[in-house]
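Task: encode each sequence below as structure tokens.

Item 1
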Amino acid sequence: MSAAVALLAAYLLGSIPFSFLVARLFGVTDVRKVGSGNVGATNVMRSAGRTAGILAFLLDSSKGAGAALLALRLDPALAPQAAAAAVLGHMYPVWLRFKGGKGVATGAGAFLPLAPVATAVAFLVFALTAALTRYVSLGSIVGTLALPLAAFLSGAPPSVTAWAAAIGLLVVWKHRANLERLVRGTERRLGSARQ
């Protein structure tokens, strides 16, 4: 299988809109039209309930992991790029006219097989930040930025660190509206009634 085909497969796997489909399964016709409008687990949780949100998180993570694991079997050198392609697929899914989520869950799943220690550290940073501040967005940003640093410090291959950093910057950029609300003090906290 050529590199281009492998990366396209990773993108298409990442672009499966599980959060959109799970929300619909739980009675939300279009998750893009409720709450924050984001096609991600947090908005699914707030609009369709905790069970739906957890299911969306697990499925979005799994498609990232699946893309990375498939690439590891076909050509390990392509695995970091395949992980990034899966995250890009989630953010810009062809099935939803390129309007997807922010890539946090998919990114966590995608880099878990490539840098398990670093991903575990990043998840811990996310969980602690979200728990202490009750801002999921802030936890997502800090955890995402922690991933490449933890990858570097834990001795992950340079390509994994580099792609984790590149995707991390894109995830932060996708959170730019959240950052503006955090600065203004209008970002909604975890457990608030509305997104």
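Item 2
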Amino acid sequence: MELRTQLHGMWASVAPAWAEHADYADTRGAPVTAELLRRSAPRPGDRVLELACGAGGVGIAAAELVGPAGEVVLSDVAAEMTAIAAARAAALGLGNVRTQTLDLDELAQPDEAYDVVLCREGLMFALDPARALGEIRRVLRPGGRVALAVWGPRARNPWLSLVFDAASAQLGAPVPPPGVPGPFALDDPERLARLLADAGLAGVAVTEVPTPLRDPSFDAWWTRTSALAGPLARRLAALPDPARRQLRDRLVEAVGPYRTPAGLDFPGVTLVAAGQRRACGPA
């Protein structure tokens, strides 16, 4: 329970940064969002749940597909995040969107309540991903679809892995610490597919979506990455100035292979997993 409380507080603390960079996150995540929607196929009149919504970009995109006869619930473990998502939906005049504070590991929602469940880059932070997927299956209606995205293999996402490696070296301890879920906790596609299948979901498939990251300068990349990296942001902010400068120096050297005349150009890959609840059979 203590770890759960700490994680909730961690995401609440980075909500202001997610509000500031919401448009950037949606632009960068657009190919993943498109794949999530393609795989889950929200239809007019459907009821959709977005989990770990952050600033709500995926659910907001789904709201246009389900139309006024449908409904989208934007949910996150941090009420500070859902407040951001609600404000963005309201600014777009989306009357079919509402928000709720929900924990991935224990969804306080009725059985068979949704046609579609979506989650972009959230499941890897669940304390118990198997339990979370069981909850997702429970709240899906028979025939309902789920599509979720997690970061792919650590070695293929240097835009973030370099930060964690440098922070671990600077702090003299692994980041995130043992027992705390991190961004690469589900980066094995075979394990990810097995988790969905073991939860009772059918038609499971995992595909890769290229997600390169390009920034015009080191400072632009470092400012956003350090602000948005939930498991790390608070620890970085607490570093004394000399240690923060040392960490920055480490990273200036580490990003050397990714420098181009236009700035930084990192490769990246996201895993998109999808499945559905069987239309009939045992619950």
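Check on item 2: The longest strand covers residues 140-151. The chain is about 45% helix and 20% strand.
End of task.
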